Amino acid sequence: MAENQDVYKKKFGTFLGVYLPSTLTVLGLIMYLRFGWVVGNVGLPLTIVIVLLANIITFITGMSAAAIATNIKVGVGGVYYLISRSLGLETGGAIGVAFYISRTLSITFYAFGLAELILLFWPIEAWGALPEYAIPLMTAIIIIAITFASGKSAELVLKFQVPMLILVVISILALMAGVFMNELRMPELTASYRTVPDGGFWIIFAVFFPGVTGFLAGIAMSGDLKTPGQSIKMGTIYSVLTGVAVYLLIPVLLSITAVLPFEQMADESYGLRTWSDVAFMGGLFIYPAACGAILSSAIGSVLSGPRVLQSLSMDGLAPKFLSKVTKTGQPAIATWVTGAVALSAVALGDLNTAAKFVTVLFLTLYVVINIVAATEKLVAEPSFRPSVNVPWYVSVLGAVGSLYVMYLISPIALAFAFLLEAGCYLYFKKKSLEQQWGDVNAGLWMKIARFSLLRMNHYHVKQRNWRPIILLFVKDISDRIELVKLAAAFGQNRGIFSISKLLVNAGEPTRKTRKVLKDRMIQKVQRIGVDAFCEVHEVDSLHSGILNISRGHGISGLKTNTIMFGWSEDREANSNQLKIIRSLSRIGKNIILAKFNDHENWKVDNHRYIDVWWSGAENNGDLMLILSYMLTLNPEWKHANIRIREVIDHEEDQRFFAESIKQSLKEARIEAEGEIIIKNGRSFTDILTTYSSEADLVMLGLKVTSPGEEEKHAAKIDQLSRVGKVCIFVQNNNLDDTFPVLLTSENQGEPTGRESNS
Q1: In whole angstroms, what is the distance from residue 243 CA to residue 80 CA?
Q2: CB-hemisphere CA count at 13 Å for 706?
Q3: I need a labelling partner for 576 at 20 to 30 A (CA). Which of 12, 198, 618, 748 fits?
Q4: Which residues pair with 501 in a beta bridge?
Q5: Tens digit of pLDDT for each residue in 64-90?
């Protein structure tokens, strides 16, 4: 996919790439052709209800989409890309097909509207009544024209929308001027349903709703944006808010003007004349703006639809030839195919029929976008740190609201959308997995368990899914309660935590004895409110026992990645522990050593400072920072400040490293303070004591000890570990895990004069 994306020569910013196409799609067809019809049928209060209901669902969905977009690097395909990277290719492909069809039907939808507008000027006196085939024929001509125009240059089309937005703003001002220059009246407060069946609220809503789905037009341009996450977030939010403001203003203006009777507004064929009869200078400002807005919306759909098809092709879910692009980066073949599909959709017959299908398919996207955002929030991946924070229940509300509206609009259309997406899902699923089912109950759960474990088998290579899977070795939980609580806090219910008790040279303990010891461990961890797996193992020696248990600990993709120990006062035991750690480093296990210095103050529920001393000499900084972030997810640590400190030799490098840390933290989306300290001849121990003596937790890197250095290194750890309420030594040995932080020397250029912590 990256190879194809590199073809694009021009990347767009927030205004041109997202806000402008989204806003013009919102302030387009429905606003000009159907707002008077809505007001004339349901009155002002229910019109406001329709506007607010539609925009609440849209705003929630826009926020959910922004949350997903700001947490991943967004590529070509818009909503399809967001969903496929969150739920997998099968689900993403099914939604991508629905999104593509809805975008393609939108072309037909806008072309119908533009055809209606153009044919208002049909000279009836000279040519007679409008033929029945006139609107479909004009619609087909428009689709062919905009398909050829959009296949040339996305930049040209997007820049064309700037004057169109200016015309739209002028037309709204002309309407306001026309209203207040003429006689005013009281708005109609009750629904009359003059030209629709009684109780046709949802019919009117179905026709209106596509007018608020414009934010998807900007998201669909994701592959053409300079900074997709930021642009989608800001462009989407501002576009939705702009639409809400304008859509609340227009019905009020149309309701209070006495220029037109409500009966005339309710006439569907009156269309744009509702605006032109009221506005200042008639249709002089209205017709060009309406034509331009509707045309730009149609072109926006022609731009976005092919890019979804292109992305499906890149992922192998559509024929490969559809991903081919021109020298200017346009997916030409996908554009022609999209135009052909839109042309065939003219057979739907009219604007309202197209609107119903577009509405239902868009709402299915809304449902899935909100479900993805809610699931991400509930699953609580440590790496899910979007810059837009949407509570899961808000996203669920958006999904439920969208689903309910789909049902009310058309149960048949809902069934069609469900069958379409289910069929696509099963097709894509069949392409990648051959399912074999056993009996209905046990076979189903066995398949789910097997599928999950097989997926987790690739767990270690997925950057965004890293979680601490910790194995803690202790002699007695009662003597190490603080250590157990700290290990559990690193996982914060997002990882897996196991506690292992070793029986060294204990002979042959019976199964009953092991069970009793294990049950006691479980009772102790439950009393202190910790969720952990407890184990009892008999081993011949401490060294071989820890190594063998650590090597095979876990299941399938859930292999233990981090081993944790407490640091004691026994120098000989500590030297042996460093030998064990060296062996563990060879099999790729991360190490956490913890030394508690202030047992009483450690029990407080409001820790303030976590000091991370990052030297850059080892690859430990990433792991220290992600563990610090995990700590802050705990209630007692949520107000703690992470302070990253780095010691350098040369003052002239201070600004460089400060900016590097600042940029790295920004990209990692972790809030922390950075501080660069000049050594000035001081020892690291003196600097550490000066800056971190009052810290609640101090993190230092732990180097791999060479044979024969254990006693010397243990003495150094003893010296450094006296700082802070608790001192942690961290060693990152799993090079296959790419933590979602960027504090590495590769990102910071050439390091100068920095030393390892310990």
Answers
A1: 24
A2: 1
A3: 618
A4: 536
A5: 887 877 776 666 666 777 777 766 777
Measured distance CA(558)–CA(570) in Å, rounded = 34
- Whole-angstrom distance, CA of residue 261 vs CA of residue 626: 65
| Residue pLDDT, tens place only, 279-333 | 999 889 998 998 888 888 787 788 778 888 888 888 788 888 888 877 766 787 8
What the block records as the tokens of 480 is: 């190490």
CB 218 within 8 A of CB 19: yes
SS3 588: coil
Q: Which two tokens stand for residue 86?
A: 């969150």
Phi, psi of 466 (to 5 degrees): -65, 135
Length of the chain: 758
Cα 539 to chain centroid distance, Å, stands at 47
How far apart (Å, rounded) are the C-alpha atoms in residues 730 and 623? 7
- Measure the CA–CA gap between 517 and 495, rounded to whole angstroms: 24
User: Would you tell me the crossing angle of helices 89-118 and 134-150 to the nearest 10 degrees?
Assistant: 120
Q: Can you tell me which residue has the tokens 């071989």?
A: 544
Match 């292992």 to its residue by tokens. 500
Tell me the CA distances in angstroms from 669 to 64, 615, 662, 739, one per residue in order: 18, 21, 11, 13
Choice between 148 and 44, residue whose per-residue pLDDT is larger? 44
Report the alpha-carbon distance of residue 229 to residue 386 in Å, rounded. 9
Q: How far apart are CA 267 and CA 218, in angstroms?
A: 33
Q: How far is CA 155 from the centre of its chain?
A: 27
Task: State the distance between the two ends of the chain, measured CA to CA, in whole angstroms.
Answer: 43
Dig out the tokens for 202 from the structure: 């949802």
Dump the DSSP string for 300-344: HHHHHHHHHHHHHHHTTSS-GGGG---TTS--HHHHHHHHHHHHH
Q: Are 278 and 254 in contact (CB under 8 A)?
A: yes
Which helix (H) or strand (E) element contains residue 502? strand 496-504
One-letter amino acid of 100: Y
Residue in the structure block whose two tokens are 């087909």: 140
CB 740 within 8 A of CB 626: yes
**610-656 pLDDT, tens per residue?**
999 987 556 788 888 888 988 988 888 888 999 998 888 888 888 88
CA angle 289, 291, 295 (to 5 degrees): 115
**Residue 391 Cα distances to 469, 569, 585, 619, angstroms:** 27, 46, 40, 35
Count of CA atoms in the C-beta half-sphere (13 A) of 599: 5
Residue 126 CB: number of other CB atoms within 10 A? 6
The DSSP line for 358-397 is HHHHHHHHHHHHHHHHHHHHHHT-TT---SS---HHHHHH
When pLDDT is cut at 50, 70 and 90, the band that residue 3 belongs to is very low
Which phi-psi region, left, alpha or beta, contains residue 539 (left: φ > 0; alpha: ψ -120 to 50)?
beta
**φ, ψ of residue 153 in degrees (nearest 5):** -155, 120
Contact 726, 637 (CB under 8 A): no
The distance from CA 614 to its chain's CA centroid, rounded to whole angstroms, is 30
Q: Which residues, other chains included, contact 288 with Cβ-Cβ below 8 Å and sequence gap of 6+?
A: 167
Q: Determine the 3-state secondary structure of 610 from DSSP.
A: strand
| CA–CA distances in Å: residue 710 to residues 563, 578, 582, 685 | 19, 6, 10, 19
DSSP 76: T
Give the 3-state secondary structure of residue 701.
Answer: strand
Residue 210 β-bridge partners:
none
d(CA 606, CA 637): 6
